[in-house]
Amino acid sequence: MEQKTKLHEKLFLGLIMLFFYLPIIYVVIFSFNSSKSLSTFTGFSLQWYEKMFANRTIMESIWYTVACAVIATVVSTIVGTVTAIGMSKSSKALREAINQVNNLPMLNPDIVTAIGFMLFFTSLRIKTSFTTMVLAHIAFCIPYVILSVMPKLRTLDPNLAEAALDLGCTPMQALWKVIIPQIMPGIISGALVAFSMSFDDFVISLFTTGPGVNNISIYVYANVKRVNPTINALSAIIVYVVTIVLILVNVIPMIRERKLKKNEN
Fold first, then answer.
1. What is the pLDDT of residues 54-107, one digit of tens each?
2. 61: number of CA atoms within 13 Å, CB side?
3. Spatial distance between the Cα atoms of 145 and 185, rounded to a whole number of angstroms
4. If you write DSSP's letter for every residue of 78-110 in order, what string do you get?
5. Each residue of 13-29: pLDDT tens digit?
6. How far apart are CA 129 and CA 109, in angstroms?
C-alpha cells in the first residue's frame, strides 16, 4: 500500500513537472526551427536568433527592460532595506501600521495598481515615459524587499547595534559593518525578487510607459497574434540566462563550502 502511494506521488510530481517545463522546452526547440511553423520542426537553423539581434525594436525592448529592472532593483533595495531597519527600531503599533500599508500593493490586483499609477501621473500632468515606468516599478518592488529583509532583522540580537556603538563605532559604521552584513542574505533575496518582478511585469508597464518605450512583455503582447518566431528566440535566450544564473547561484556556494572545509582540514 505504501509503495503504491509513493508511486502515485512520484507520478503526480512528474506530471506537474511536465506541465511546467514542457512549454519551455517547446519554445526552446522551435527557436531553432528553420521555418515559421510552430507545429512542425522542419530543420535546425539559427536564423531567428540572427533576425532577433538584427531587429532594432527587439533590442530596444531588451534595453528598456534591463535598464528599468536594474534601476528599480537598486533603488527599491536601498529604500526597502533602510525602511525595514527603521521599522525594526520603531514601536509595535507603528510597525504594524506600516506592515499593513506595505501589504496593500502585493494584495492589490496588478490592474488596480496600474490604473492607480496612470491616474496619479495624469492628475499631476506628468507625461508618461520611461521615467514614469521606472518610478512605478520602484514603488511596487519596495514592499517585496521589505518583506524579504524583515525576517532577517527579527533574528538579530536587538543589542547588537548598541554593542557596536559601545565599542567605538559611529551609527553609520554600525549600520554598514555590523547590521548590513548580518542581513545580507535577506537583502540579496529581496533584490532578486525585485529584479524578477520588474523584469517580468506587463500590466503596470503598459499603463505607465510612454510612446515608443516598450519592454519585452509589451513587445511580446503586441506581436503575440502574429507568426513571429523571433519571439521564440527571445524567450529561449531569457531561459538560457535564467538557467545560467540559477546554476551559478547554487554552484558558487557549494564551491565556497568545499574550499572552507578543505582549509579547515
1. 888 889 999 999 999 999 999 999 999 988 888 887 777 888 888 888 888 888
2. 25
3. 12
4. HHHHHHHHHHHTS-HHHHHHHHHHHHHHHHS-H
5. 888 888 888 888 888 88
6. 23
What's CA 162's distance to the chain center, in Å?
34
Cα–chain center distance at 66 = 11
Cα→Cα distances 8→1, 22, 124, 215, Å? 11, 20, 58, 42
Cell numbers representing residue 48 in the block: 531567428
Grid cell listed for 235: 524567450
User: The C-alpha cell of 29 is what?
Assistant: 526547440
* Domains along the chain with CATH numbers: 57-228 (1.10.3720.10)
Distance, CA of 115 to CA of 226 (rounded, Å): 28
Q: 32 φ, ψ to 5°?
A: -100, 10
Closest CA to 96 of 177, 15, 150, 23: 150
pTM: 0.83
